[in-house]
Amino acid sequence: MSDEIRQDAPMEEKGMQEGSTDSEPKKAQLTNAELELLADEMGASGIGEVKRIGYFSLIGRRFVRQRSAMTGLVILALLALLAIFGPHIAPFTYTDPDFTALNVPPNATHWFGTDGGGFDLFASVVHGLGRSLAIGLIYSILTTIIAAVVGTSIAYVRGIPEKIGMWLLDMLLIIPSFLLVAMVVRAASGTQGWAMLIVGLTAFGWIGYARTLRTMALSLRERDYVRAAKYMGVSPLKTIVRHLIPNLGSILILDTVLGVIGGINSETAYSFLGLGIKAPDTSLGYLLSQGSSAMLSAPWIVLIPSVVLIVLCVSMQLIGDGLRDALDPYSRAAGSVEDDADEDDSSN
Amino acid sequence: MARFVGYIAKRVLSYMVMIFVATSLTYFLASAFMSPRSNYESRTPRPPQESIEASLNATNLNDKTPILERYKTWLGNIATHWDWGKTPTGSSVNEEMSSRLAASVQLMTLATVISIVVGVSLGVYTAQRQYQWQDRFFGGMASLFMVVPTVVLAILIVFFAIEVNQLAGTRLFYVTGLSSYDGTNPFMALLDFLQHILLPTVVLTIISSVGYHLGQRTYLLDEMHADYVRTARAKGLTRKQAIRKHALRASLIPTAVSVAFSIAGIFTGAVMTEKIFAIHGLGEYFINCINNNNIHGAVAVAAFSGACTLVGALLADLFAAALDPRIKMS
Amino acid sequence: MAEMANESTRGSWVPQDQILSYELLEGNGPKGAPEGDPIMSVRNLKVSFATEAGRVDAVRGVNFDLWRGRTLGIVGESGSGKSVTALSLIGLLDDNARVAGSVKFDGEELVGKSDEEMAAFRGKSISMIFQDPLSALTPMFTIGEQLAETLLIHNPQMTKQEQRARCIELLRMVGITNPEDRLDAYPHEFSGGMRQRVVIAIAIANDPDVIIADEPTTALDVTIQAQILDVLAVAQRETGAAVVLITHDLGVIAGTADDVLVMYAGCAVERSSIDTVFARPSQPYTMGLLGAVPKPHMAAEHRLVPIKGNPPSLAAIPKGCPFSPRCPMASGKCFEVEPSLEPIDASEGHLVSCHKLAEIRDRHLSFQEVYPELEPLPAKWAEVPRDQRPVVLEVKDLVKTFPVQGKGLIRRERGTMTAVDHVSFRLHEGETLALVGESGSGKSTTLMQIMDLVKPEHGSITVLGRNTADLRNNRERREVRKDLQVIFQDPMSSLDPRMPIYDVLAEPLRAQKWSSKDINSRIGELMHLVGINPDYVDRFPSQFSGGQRQRIAIARALATRPKVLLLDEPIASLDVSIQAGIINLLEDLQVQLKISYLFVAHDLAVIRHISDSVAVMHLGKIVEQGDTEEVFTNPQDPYTKALLSAIPIPDPKVERSRERLVYQHGKLVSSSSLLPSLGK
Are C64 and C101 within 8 A, CB to CB? Predict the structure, then answer.
């Protein structure tokens, strides 16, 4: 079999050149494949001049082009820097109260003021910001991974396992996850609370998401390339990892970004209710619950964490929107591959 | 028709199985994680041991009784008397829930109706003006409200209301509870109720109308580009007429489905809003149950909200079937 | 309404230019030359779209006139600008379109009118029939409501009774039986063909002067297509309207059009009356297009001659003549200056845009001279008669049933549907067997049953001597899969968009546990084998054209050196000029590699060209089976006869003289007897 290929397939470079310049009868013996290769050399295939550009650099380029998305990214970067280096530049720590300054408004010593216990609000906010970011990121990444694996697997297996999987997901969905998370976190200690909060949020946060991803994978599993993989003898696990999950990739990336907001929101809610992060640890939600009782006498305690939360969430949202436009082939941020390359050339 | 009833019966039955499993699971988890015993042990002065055991036994919350035995008693009471058990303080979960249910319904009904109306109208309005400044403005607002934590939103609104009250020198807005008027004048009672309900309603409306707005906008945009809208325009309808007569109708189906789900949500209340505005509804009760190790209360609320979710799902199916001729009842 | 136009304004709006004068000269068709004033005049129509990629010029200066009672066929491949032209006549382009030039309807300029102003014309004077009948009707409203709406917009005074009567009349006109009952049905209760009839009824409801039909039969089966074309003819006769028929199918044009406009890259490249263009195509592209299609009414003696390369993207139209990179005659000037339409002979209206026109005219060049014919590769093993070669695939008494579920809320099973009903056939080494049938005939299901490699419900499948019922696990199946591969219809969906070509081709080899060194060298071989430059291995599928993607899909299927290839409509989604290349490639590969093909298709012309034997499927059963030539020249089964008679033939003279046969309730009837009686 392979011998036959070697006899017929290789082209003779000379014959090709001849064939392209004049119309010798020799041409009649060329196979269609050889003719096509000839046409390609002459530029008739229409792709000869295309510059190769990777998927991710393309997305990156589309993303960078959007001003609002870049603004979001810069704000987020600043907030992240503040969360990382803030504790080192702050003159106080969130654990040591300054008894000489109780309930003072923002001033030169206490940049964000202090609360009723004399705790420096800047130190607390910076620490809480770090907590929020960490919880949001870890939660979001973990839930995305679990949901992607479970959702696509349920979609791919079909038949009775699919039915059982769906039933279980539905069943888990009707138990209020709020209750379950609260119970798990309540059992934890004050310093371990934030880790347990991630565990609790993740353990019950992926379910609805897995359902959504399954629905999306349902249409993917009918694609011919998934069927082709099956008919080539590719194993189900490999098909899921190599075809289904990568083709949900843009959705997964986007949802990871937006999931961070979900994580931050949940942290705020649970901590505010006293079910999440508790003293001696502190977080933005915890600060809000402290401040809400002193709204009239010390409004800065509640206003400053609120502003930080809004800026944080909005910056993530801007990034998410920018990513959505960059990933959506039909959006206005899109251009064809070639044109992006052209544009890049001219701008450089 | 008979077939339809049979179908509904089958669905309801399978939902009941689902609720049963979910509720039982919640019961076991709650019993594992919550410790009503600590309620008594942490009292000062600490009650005598026998008294603790007696109280726990009386409420079927004693962790020294095997879990399956407690489960059996609990389940038996529900099955025979529809009795969902007792709180650690000995009061009846049924009674506590029913009084709080009323508060939740009062709060949620108005907010749900307003948010559907506002959200769907905004969705239709902005979809027809895609990429114009109106769409950008309301879209921007929606993105903002979508990501801002409810707590922050509610606190800022409360803060603002208090400032207004101080400026006005009188209490225009109340930020806690649902009523504070004890008189008999029905007009004054209504005014008082409105003053109380205004702010939580604003919070809830903002939060949930965002979903309807963005959803309706997407659905309508999808349908606007459907082939049949082009056919309608080819008949001689203007673009606006074609959208109003053809695309809008189709785009309302998925919205109706989500409305069906939210109808059920009226009864379960809103956890954060109730907590912040000190409205004693089911949502707040739920938090209290968790904080007070009220296993039976928490499980009952969970079961109730599960049931509401499934009723919502059933309603959603019926709505879709009623509106979409492609889905036939028989 | 055209008749009402004032005599004095009449003459003045009609542009007395060369375009019109040439058109009036052309009468080489069934209806002779056009007479009187045109109802619509299109002059220098240009449409461009503002996209982020820059300006896309979809239509670049198109001219034509329409006369009542005549049909203009606009032919072109995807991206030729034919659909955009159609939409600009009725003002239904997207908002980002910029239209320039002039479209005059009965003296009134339509370009520049607002949506509201155009709405008065749409559905009343100008109406449109769209490609996909399944999505063209609003699912929420009944057929009656949608028809009545059309009437009511333009005749608000109509009473309910009048509307109803007219709706019934219209439905009867388009051949819908029991129109009284059907008025209350929803679109989803109708088949595709029936829905297209309703769309036509809507289009003719207000007696329009111009009907634009944009690929009206492309989404339909061939027997349904024949019926819809008949209905369209009735609609034209009833309304006396001018029809613009847009299609890529030369057979459809041959039977229906009076005049033809061939479009390429947004421009008209040839214009003439119907018989002229088929008898003397004079632009190399038109020649190629006509030459590249397999002829369903002739035996396949010659190898098809494809047009090399791919149609240009409208965002990057080649310099000079847009066809020059693909044209066998192109030289010098062709690459520099774009030609314009010129008459081939001053006394005729046959217009051609080509720099080589003089040469073509003087030397009477035809397709054979312009596109040198290629001899088929000799098969080294052809001397062994097919039926004496070993059997590589045997299907015996195969049955596949599906549970039929009620649509909608209550999904209860309503018995079973037999998709494949006792199907048996044998495939020999190096043979091509075609399974032909319309949608729902069970041909693709049969193919998937074979690919699944499991024990069938009933009967047996034997691949290279191994019965699928004996395959116990996936490892054993994988061994068989090495020798049995499949190619799908749509190369867009059969290649994972996230994988570079290298990984696409490596996937079957990795599944067969090849070493990475072997995989590497095999991929180079494969790229050569199917005619893709091996330097392109790290590109993604989206960077290739449809034809190239199908070549890649073929390369992937060949990767493990299979002995049997199942092809599920492998060329159905490709442009006409690309199809021939893929057919040739498949023929070459069979000769080179001695593969057997099981070829599933609905296109009878392609099947006649490529296959050695044919099995005709209808409702899950094979109704006729035999050597290709035997089946095509002497069909026995009535369904086969009806199917063969429904294929449009790219030859206007043959097409006009044919009597179609329709298969109804197991009997054959003449299609003319089925047309609605037109008593007025």
Answer: no
Neighbour tally for B151: CB within 10 Å: 27
Q: With a cut of 0.95, is the ipTM above it?
A: no
| For residue A110, pLDDT beyond 70 | yes
At A18, the pLDDT band (50, 70, 90 cuts) reads very low
B110: left (phi over 0), alpha (psi -120 to 50) or beta: alpha
Looking at residue B246, what DSSP letter applies? Answer: I
Measured distance CA(C376)–CA(C304) in Å, rounded: 9
**Among the listed residues C507, C501, C459, C516, the one whose alpha carbon sits nearest the alpha carbon of residue C481:** C507
Contacting residues for A192 by C-beta, under 8 A, at least 6 apart? none
- For the residues C92-118, what does the mean pLDDT come to? 89
Grouping H, G, I as helix, E, B as strand and the rest as coil, residue C127 is: strand
CA B150 to chain centre: 14
Closest partner CB to C407 (pick from B238, B246, B328):
B328
- Residue written as tokens 């206003």? A303
**Is residue B75 scored above 70 in pLDDT?**
yes
Q: Using CA atoms, how far apart are residues A283 and C669, in angstroms rounded to an integer?
A: 82
Would the CB atoms of C310 and A42 count as touching at under 8 Å? no
Q: Which residues does B181 contact at the CB level (< 8 Å), separation at least 6?
A: B188, B189, B191, B192, B193
Lowest mean pLDDT among A49-53, A251-255, B80-84, B161-165: A49-53
- Omega before A280 cis (within 30°)? yes
CA distance C177 to A222: 37
- CB neighbour list of residue C244: distance below 8 Å, 6 or more residues apart: C66, C71, C72, C74, C86, C89, C210, C211, C212, C213
Question: With an 8 Å Cβ cutoff, is C540 touching chain A?
Answer: yes
Query: Which residues in chain A have Cβ-Cβ distances shorter than 8 Å to C476?
Result: none
Please give the order of strands across the beta sheet that includes C466-467. C413-428, C391-405, C458-463, C466-467
- Evaluate the CA torsion angle C633, C636, C638, C640 in order and state its sign: negative
Question: What span, in angstroms and rounded, lies between the C-alpha atoms of A263 and A269?
Answer: 10
CB contact under 8 A, A175 and B147: no
Distance (Å) of CA C467 to CA A121, C429, C649? 77, 17, 42
Taking CA–CA distances from C53, the nearest residue in chain A reads: A335
C48: enclosing H helix or E strand: strand C40-51
Length of chain A: 348
DSSP per-residue letters across C615-669 = EEEETTEEEEEEEHHHHHHS--SHHHHHHHHHS--S-HHHHHH---EEEETTEEE
Which amino acid appears at position A290 of this protein? Q
Q: How far is CA C44 from the centre of its chain?
A: 28
> To the nearest whole angstrom, how far is the Cα of C315 from the nearest Cα of chain B?
23
Q: Per-residue b/e over C432-446, b at no fewer than 16 CB within 10 Å?
A: bbbbbbbebbbbbbb
Q: How many CA atoms lie within 13 A of A6 on its CB side?
A: 5
| pLDDT-derived band at C382, boundaries 50, 70, 90 | low
Q: E strands, C106-250, where? A: 108-109, 126-129, 210-214, 242-247
Residue B324 to residue C139, Cβ atoms within 8 A: yes
Residues paired with residue C270 on neighbouring β-strands, in sequence order: C262, C352
Please, what is the end-to-end C-alpha distance for chain C in angstroms?
A: 20
User: Which chain C residues touch A1 with a CB distance below 8 Å?
Assistant: 561, 593-594
Q: Contact B159/A173, CB-based, under 8 Å?
A: no
Chains in contact with C, where contact requires at least 3 CB pairs less than 8 Å apart: A, B
- Interface-testing mutation among C95, C539, C590, C592, with chain A (most A C-beta atoms within 10 A): C592
Token output for C552:
């890649």
Q: Got the DSSP string for C317-356?
A: PPSSSTTGGG-TT--GGGGTS----EESSTTS--EE--TT
- pLDDT at position C47 is 92
